[in-house]
Specification:
Elements (H helix, E strand, L loop, with lengths): L36 E3 L1 E7 L7 E7 L12 H4 L7 H8 L3 E8 L3 E2 L2 E2 L3 E10 L5 E4 L1 H4 E2 L2 E2 L2 E7 L5 E12 L4 E5 L2 H4 L6 E2 L10 E6 L7 E15 L5 E8 L11 E4 L3 E10 L9 E5 H14 L5 E2 L2 E6 L1 H6 L7 E7 L4 H5 L6 E5 L2 E5 L3 E5 L2 E2 L3 H9 L6 E8 L2 E8 L1 E2 L5
Parallel strand pairs: 14-19
Antiparallel strand pairs: 1-19, 2-3, 2-7, 4-7, 4-11, 5-6, 7-8, 8-13, 9-10, 11-12, 12-13, 15-16, 15-18, 16-17, 17-20, 18-19, 19-20, 21-30, 22-23, 23-26, 24-25, 26-27, 26-28, 28-29
Length: 420
């Protein structure tokens, strides 16, 4: 099944998606690695006839969305060694919850379907008035939104309580969803403190709390293995500044918090890279700063808008550019320009011919973007991240190399179309 075309798409190698279960959405890591890439899955049940005795277990995907909270300063978020994993769990676990999404029967090709399915993931409280963040793919799959969502809390005494939650909004572009519960029904809510994902450092300790493989309220620990990873969202958009961790993440962790040693949430656990389907120390989280921005838009409008330039591009290194007879610069080859887009209005030019170098095909003859809004751009990931930081209507300078000369054009970004 074809997926929506990216606004700006890396024309390099990408890894395949592994999907499992009746309710599943693929999320792939945009990176070159030998391992296969898997979405963080959840335990999923298919109810065949509504009879509780006829429930069959299989695997599915989980996900969640935005919430609210206060971001900590860069200095405090970057501190390490403040709390032990046990202390973090003691103070944070009651703010973490199970998310059970039920997808109704709906209409099939031959009339009403007789069964329904459920997906179990994780989430966490971000405000005392009942907002909860989780992954989008936990509560929405292939355009089908869950008919009902139940969240389960566990208090300090180990007692569990389940209440209904409403879906405030879902953003497939960031794989973030925002839920809401009635605080009067939930009792005393314990919001988790939100940190600053821009201040995260490689090597600092982290823990993940969630429901891996259906084992509820489980804690795993590790470190931040890498930052600035580019993740691909369920709808094909790029999630910039992803956090990589070796804290064990498995099916059911999706939507749960990744917490630093100061007890602040720095990301939402979202996907794993694995050859076996289990945790191999390659887990990835949506940065909390992205989730905070998405949460704000979902609360205000129920939807999220993204800035759009309107090109397809390809990373090119200076050495490769020189070998192709182009100016020796790192940047982004403009492969194609979408009609009636901001890029078209700014006069950007797409490629006119294909050239093969060491087995890689490059589309040359067009502009090479080297800076966006004053920031140097050396790859498609850089450009995607730069565009994501802006909003529709922003006017930006785009520095390009054309016919061997460097020049600057003005582009007024518009809202990214729902379908490309």
């Amino acid at each position: 099944m074809a997926r929506p075309r990216l606004d700006v798409k890396q024309a390099g190698a990408r890894l395949g998606i592994f999907l499992a279960g009746a309710v599943s959405v693929g999320v792939i890591l945009v990176a070159l690695m030998a391992a296969g890439v898997l979405p963080v899955k959840v335990t999923e049940t298919r109810i065949v006839s509504g009879d509780a005795a006829a429930i069959a277990q299989d695997d599915g995907d989980s996900s969640g969305a935005g919430g609210s909270g206060q971001t900590g300063s860069s200095e405090t978020s970057a501190r390490v060694g403040t709390l032990t994993p046990a202390q973090i769990y003691e103070r944070s676990s009651s703010g973490v919850l199970e998310v059970l999404a039920t997808f109704g029967s709906g209409e099939g090709l031959f009339g009403p379907q007789s069964g329904s399915s459920q997906a179990l993931g994780s989430g966490f409280v971000v405000s005392e008035d009942g907002y909860i963040l989780t992954n989008a793919h936990v509560v929405e799959s292939d355009g089908l939104r869950a008919d009902a969502v139940t969240v389960t809390f566990k208090d300090a005494d180990g007692q569990s309580s389940a209440i209904d939650a409403t879906i405030v909004g879902v953003d497939q572009g960031s794989d973030v969803a925002l839920l809401k519960v009635d605080p009067k029904k939930a009792g005393t809510l314990q919001p988790l403190e939100l940190g600053d994902s821009d201040a995260v450092k490689v090597g600092e300790p982290v823990v993940a709390i969630g429901n891996p493989l259906g084992y509820d309220f489980t804690l795993t620990e590790g470190i931040v293995s890498a930052v600035d990873r580019s993740l691909e969202a369920p709808n094909g958009m790029i999630i910039s500044n992803g956090i990589q961790t070796d804290a064990a993440i498995n099916e059911g962790n999706s939507g749960g918090p990744l917490i630093d040693s100061s007890g602040r949430v720095i990301g939402i656990n979202e996907q794993i890279a694995s050859q076996s389907g289990g945790s191999q120390g390659l887990g990835f989280a949506v940065p909390i700063n992205t989730a905070i921005d998405v949460m704000g838009q979902l609360k205000d409008d129920g939807r999220v808008s993204y800035a759009w330039l309107g090109i397809q591009g390809q990373t090119i290194a200076a050495a490769v550019a020189e070998a192709l007879g182009l100016p020796a610069v790192d940047g982004v080859l403009v492969v194609d320009v979408t009609a009636d887009s901001p890029a078209t209005q700014a006069g950007l030019r797409g490629g006119t011919q294909q050239t093969e170098l060491q087995g890689e095909v490059y589309v040359t003859g067009g502009d090479v973007i080297t800076a966006f809004a004053g920031e140097k751009v050396t790859s498609m990931d850089d450009l995607v991240a730069a565009i994501t930081e802006h909003k529709p209507g922003d006017e930006v300078e785009v520095t390009i190399v054309r016919d061997g000369e460097t020049r600057t054009v003005q582009a007024t970004l518009s809202e990214r179309p729902a379908e490309l």
